[in-house]
Backbone:
């Protein structure tokens, strides 16, 4: 960088720092007023957000299309509709969720009335990724507002059109002291993370998740980390191949394979591998045509860096279908790879693109060996009609969440908590789980003064026998 370039960079950084400081001061001041504790106020905010989003429906689809050629169907089902249903759920249930919950008293402290209060943490930071940029920015934001927090959202710099519309929506209905959208890249994120927050909700890569956790640890800030990983899809020889191939092609190539819970690779019983490959090829062609580049339904890789990364991943692999790409248009065809080496880059990092490695197994030990190659995944899928087989897979492996005989669909049920384990994350959200994530569960015991047995007070002499008896009944 030239000295002039460095000067401009530093001036911009100072502006970012000042902007962030102003927002945080304003949000801290607003939170102190207790305004966000008012449930009607929160519902009013959520209703305004919903109205604004509905009014911008078409612009949202345009933004997603401009970012990575996402079709209206996929944008609707995997971003827009999920955001609206999360808003509807929060608006409808907020009063019930927020109500202090009475729990049974303990014999040890009888008589008392015991409650769990759902209290907002305070000032929350949400950092979002680019792959479902609308959904993954707004879903945590909705539940953070519902729980009574102020929020700063940092959307991804790689989905610029969607980040812009997110920022417009937020600016139109919220003042910055309640909800603000701060756009920017790594410097902005770094500056945000240097601040003291009451809660940080991060969705992104495991690598950046560690940076977030480290920054949060400095202030002992609680975090939710929604991260990625290599999610396996195990297929035995009892399945209906044509159906499985359809579901697999859909689940893998949806959003061009850029889904955190996409099946990263397949482990299939060796006897049916060739048949599965043939069925998969047919299913892909049926969905996207002979040339997926011409399909309106097949999105692009988000940017050139990722396109190049993906092209490098398959350089030395046995490509058995697809493999063609137009790098400057961020196009990579749906691609199948036969039996990659477990040590290869393709099997060492999260693929996160339209590339499906297919490995075969004969024994449980083979499956174990392949899965042991990566860390605890965000998702795991098993296709089989054999209950004993599916049960043993579900029991053996640690993973965030999964599905038997389908893919991705567990994301769609707000009654199931969504989150990772180990390297794929910590904490969870969706529906009420999201509300709970952004609420501190404050235990309160209410006691009367009408009775005060002397038992607990010294002198303790001769009271231990009775104490032991009481503990037996607890
Ligand atoms: P990323 O980690 O590169 O970026 C996520 C966010 O962090 C962005 O807003 C980015 O600006 C910010 N960031 C990047 N580098 C940073 C740094 N050094 N310091 C501070 N902030 C930084 O992730 P991505 O590429 O946007 O998204 C893809 C990843 O996210 C994949 O690994 C995918 O599996 C994961 N993901 C997980 C979920 C989930 O729900 N578990 C959902 C979607 C994506």
Residues:
């Amino acid at each position: 960088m030239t000295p002039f370039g460095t000067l401009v960079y530093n001036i911009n950084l100072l502006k970012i720092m000042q902007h962030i400081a102003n927002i945080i001061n304003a949000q801290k001041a607003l939170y102190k007023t207790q305004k966000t504790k008012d449930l009607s106020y929160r519902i009013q905010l959520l209703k305004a957000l919903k109205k604004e989003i509905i009014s911008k429906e078409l612009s949202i689809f345009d933004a997603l299309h401009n970012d990575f050629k996402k079709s209206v169907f996929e944008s609707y089902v995997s971003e827009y509709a999920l955001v609206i249903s999360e808003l509807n759920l929060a608006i409808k249930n907020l009063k019930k969720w927020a109500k202090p919950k009475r729990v049974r008293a303990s014999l040890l402290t009888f008589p008392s009335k015991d409650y769990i209060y759902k209290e907002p943490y305070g000032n929350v930071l949400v950092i979002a990724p680019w792959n479902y940029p609308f959904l993954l920015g707004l879903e945590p934001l909705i539940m953070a507002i519902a729980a009574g927090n102020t929020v700063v959202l940092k959307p991804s710099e790689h989905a610029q059109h969607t980040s812009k519309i997110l920022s417009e929506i937020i600016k139109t209905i919220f003042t910055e002291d309640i909800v603000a959208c701060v756009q920017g890249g790594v410097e902005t994120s770094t500056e945000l993370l240097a601040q003291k927050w009451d809660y940080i909700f991060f969705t992104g890569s495991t690598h950046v998740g560690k940076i977030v956790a480290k920054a949060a640890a400095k202030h002992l800030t609680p975090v939710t980390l929604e991260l990625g990983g290599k999610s396996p899809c195990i297929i035995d020889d009892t399945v209906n191949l044509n159906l499985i191939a359809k579901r697999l092609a859909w689940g893998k190539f949806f959003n061009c394979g850029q889904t955190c819970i996409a099946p990263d690779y397949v482990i299939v019983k060796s006897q049916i591998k060739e048949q599965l490959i043939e069925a998969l090829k047919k299913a892909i062609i049926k969905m996207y045509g002979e040339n997926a580049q011409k399909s309106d339904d097949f999105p692009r890789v988000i940017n050139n860096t990722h396109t190049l990364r993906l092209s490098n991943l398959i350089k030395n692999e046995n490509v058995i279908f697809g493999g063609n790409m137009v790098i400057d248009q961020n196009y990579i065809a749906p691609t199948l790879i036969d039996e990659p080496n477990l040590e290869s880059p393709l099997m060492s990092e999260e693929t996160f693109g339209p590339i499906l490695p297919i490995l075969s197994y004969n024994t449980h030990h083979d499956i174990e060996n392949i899965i042991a190659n990566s860390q605890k995944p965000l998702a795991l899928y098993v296709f089989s009609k054999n209950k004993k087989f599916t049960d043993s897979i579900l029991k053996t492996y640690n993973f965030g969440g999964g599905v038997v005989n389908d893919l991705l669909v567990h994301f769609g049920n707000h009654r199931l908590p969504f989150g990772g384990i180990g390297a794929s994350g910590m904490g969870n959200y969706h529906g009420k789980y999201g509300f709970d994530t952004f609420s501190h569960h404050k235990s309160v015991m209410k006691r009367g003064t009408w009775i005060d047995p002397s038992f607990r007070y010294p002198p303790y002499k001769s009271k231990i026998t009775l104490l032991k008896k009481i503990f037996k009944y607890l």
About this structure: The mean pLDDT is 96. The longest helix spans residues 3-32.
